[in-house]
Design goal:
Its main location: cytoplasm. By secondary structure, the chain is of the alpha/beta class. A hairpin with a 2-residue loop joins strand 10 and strand 11. It folds into 2 domains: about 130 residues, Rossmann fold (3-Layer(aba) Sandwich); about 190 residues, Methylesterase CheB, C-terminal domain (Rossmann fold), CATH 3.40.50.180. It starts with a strand and ends in a 9-residue tail after the last helix. Helix content is about 35%, strand content about 20%.
Length: about 375
């Protein structure tokens, strides 16, 4: 018999603990082995029960969820799913948690918790399954640091950031990601110079979180980052994030590339879907596209990335060792969509190198 995924629930709300326990125990492949009302109790239960996955609330007595997560990922790294309120403040805290090493998050409603969590049940258990097989890494604290790390970032110029020739601005960089993608996207974007080509991004994320995600990236990057708006022109030096709950694709208006944002049916169970963005890139951009597939579960975007390659795009796929979840990149590789398979920290330099050496979009034979 296959071993069931053991889950420990940590939440100060008795109602949430009860609901999550019921949802988890309703699955044949997982079991809730305990529920803790605060991190100090959870610490002892982790030592005793050794769970496979932890669900962790943010606001709790005796110790803040972020503080506990920071200590946990330094001392005993394990897959953690954050349970955060669907608010602007909740979104900001969630991205800090992902930066600390949390695998994923569940956005619980502020009101109607019982009905809200029950509606999210299938997504919650899917996230637990993904987390159970995710690659987690030990958090390395800065020398002399105590408590929760400082999340302010100073941009340090890199020798790789060479100003790009003007003629490269016809290019558009297209990025797709899911689980683990918020940090992977940040890793790519912070290395982009202010004159980089336009960048379009689909990250699987619910409505209410993408505005905070874009604002967070904008505060860290040389390029401007914002949610995509329907009909806006795609400009060099800017990155556009698909709004949560909406599809994002590229179209042409005269000589310009423009964003199309729409609420059509989910594709591959996702809205926004990487497939939608990449399919439009293949159709509209052709050899002016550069594709990047980052960490994520499933196969969303793999076939469309192959379409991009067939249309003349040059594509980069994140390698297994640096992925949180090697799902979408693996499927893109199997579809024959990749030109280069690289560690995350090498993707942005490789893109910039190609743009500076080949700014006119001359197609290289593979």
């Amino acid at each position: 018999m296959t071993k069931r995924i053991s889950v420990l629930v940590v939440d100060d709300s008795a109602l949430v603990r009860s609901l999550l326990t019921q949802i988890i125990n309703g699955q044949s492949d997982m079991v809730c082995i305990g529920a803790a009302s605060d991190p100090l109790i959870a610490r002892e239960m982790i030592r005793e029960l050794n769970p496979d996955v932890l669900t962790l609330d943010v606001e709790m007595p005796r110790m803040d969820g972020l503080e506990f997560l920071s200590r946990l990922m330094r001392l005993r790294p394990m897959p953690v799913i954050m349970v955060s309120t669907l608010t602007e403040q909740g979104a900001d805290v969630t991205f800090r948690a992902l930066e600390l090493g949390a695998v994923d998050y569940v956005a619980k409603p502020r009101i109607g918790v019982t009905s809200g969590l029950n509606e999210l049940a299938s997504g919650i258990v899917d996230k637990i399954r993904v987390a159970a097989c995710a690659q987690v890494r030990r958090l390395v604290a800065a020398p002399g640091a105590t408590g929760t790390p400082d999340f302010s970032h100073t941009i340090v110029p890199s020798p790789a950031l060479i100003p790009l020739p003007r003629l490269s601005t016809e290019k558009v960089i297209c990025i797709g990601a899911s689980t683990g993608g918020t940090e992977a996207i940040r890793e790519v974007l912070v290395k982009m110079p202010a004159d980089a080509p336009a960048i379009v991004i689909t990250q699987h994320m619910p409505a209410g979180f993408t505005a905070s995600f874009a604002a967070r990236l904008d505060s860290l990057c040389r390029i401007s980052v914002s949610e995509a708006q329907n009909g806006q022109r795609l400009l060099p030096g800017h990155a556009y994030v698909a709004p949560g709950g909406l599809h994002f694709r590229i179209d042409r208006s005269g000589s310009n590339y423009v964003a199309v944002v729409e609420e059509s049916e989910p594709v591959n169970r996702h809205r926004p879907s990487v497939e939608v963005l990449f399919h439009s890139a293949a159709r509209v951009l052709g050899p002016n596209a550069l594709g990047i597939m980052l960490t994520g579960m499933g196969a969303d975007g793999a076939q469309a990335m192959r379409e991009m390659k067939d249309a003349g795009s040059y594509n980069y796929v994140q390698d297994e060792a640096s992925c949180v979840v090697f799902g979408m990149p693996k499927m893109a590789i199997q579809a024959g969509a990749a030109h280069e398979i690289l560690p995350l920290n090498q993707i942005a330099p490789a893109v910039l190198n190609r743009l500076t050496k080949n700014p006119w979009g001359v197609r290289h034979r593979i």
